[in-house]
Specification:
It contains six helices and 13 strands. By secondary structure, it is α/β, with parallel strands linked by helices. The two termini are about 25 Å apart. InterPro entries: Metallo-depent_PP-like (IPR029052), YmdB-like (IPR005235).
């Protein structure tokens, strides 16, 4: 089975490049299952219902998010009806939505879990406690984890702790693709960050001029999503006998 996991889709540029390039990637790489992080798809923060429907229309199987999942108020109202739109599992349990889902595809049970980092991020519950409980009761064939976190060491530590117990752990959030895609010793695929699917000539999605102004002056500045041409960033996993056998990066220019 070939699995495609795509990093944070940012605003219109991200949507446009997905619409243009996703089908080509799927066809050329015989993709069977698609996970996309929709954290920033709606104007740079959050995901509305129209953009959820947009991703589903492209054939995306599961949509993950992160710390901006509820930036669009509308998401609180529809997320209970869209179980394939995840919010981090280790958020407050009273929030709507689910942080993990099992999807049956090609005769296999594929679990996707969404987690939020605890370093340099808003409050979230302990990921190890959450994952230990989840894995103890899990009978899925494949388990994919999107760890939406800031600190690279936090991402790598979680992956090593569950090496051999999950199929893959991929990092999202920083919008910067990392060059460390690998298979850990016990068979878990890992990359520190998938990178951003959005405008190339930007500062993690925003117009450079506004970011520079804030950095130079310290004045409050509203960042606007760049509308420059976009690129897709992600990875492809080749899974055989329920384990990751190969991982490689996807980047369109």
């Amino acid at each position: 089975m070939n699995i495609l996991m795509i990093g944070d889709v940012f605003s219109k540029s991200g949507r446009d490049v997905l619409q243009k390039e996703l089908n080509n990637i799927v066809t050329e790489n015989n993709i069977d299952f698609i996970v996309v992080n929709g954290e920033n798809i709606s104007h740079g923060k959050g995901i509305n219902k129209n953009h959820y429907d947009f991703l589903k229309s492209l054939g995306v199987d599961v949509i993950t998010t992160g710390n901006h999942v509820f930036k669009v108020k509308e998401t609180l109202e529809f997320i209970e009806q869209t179980p394939d739109l995840l919010r981090p599992l280790n958020l407050n349990k009273y929030l709507p939505g689910s942080g993990t889902i099992v999807v049956k595809k090609n005769g296999l049970k594929i679990r996707v879990t969404n987690l939020l980092g605890t370093v340099y991020m808003d409050h979230a519950n302990n990921n190890y406690e959450i994952m230990d409980e989840l894995i103890a009761n899990d009978d899925s064939d494949i388990h994919l984890v999107d760890f939406h976190a800031e600190a690279s060491a936090e991402k790598k530590a979680l992956a090593w702790n569950y090496d051999g117990k999950i199929t893959a752990l991929v990092g999202t959030h920083t919008h910067v693709p990392t060059a460390d895609a690998q298979i850990l010793p016990k068979g878990t695929a890992y990359v520190t960050d998938l990178g951003m699917t959005g405008p190339i000539n930007s500062i993690i999605g925003a117009n450079p001029e506004e970011v520079i102004r804030k950095e130079k002056t310290g004045l409050p500045t509203k960042f606007k999503p760049s509308e420059n041409v976009g690129e897709i960033n992600g990875i492809i996993l080749q899974v055989k006998n329920k384990r990751a056998e190969k991982i490689w990066r996807v980047q369109t220019q």
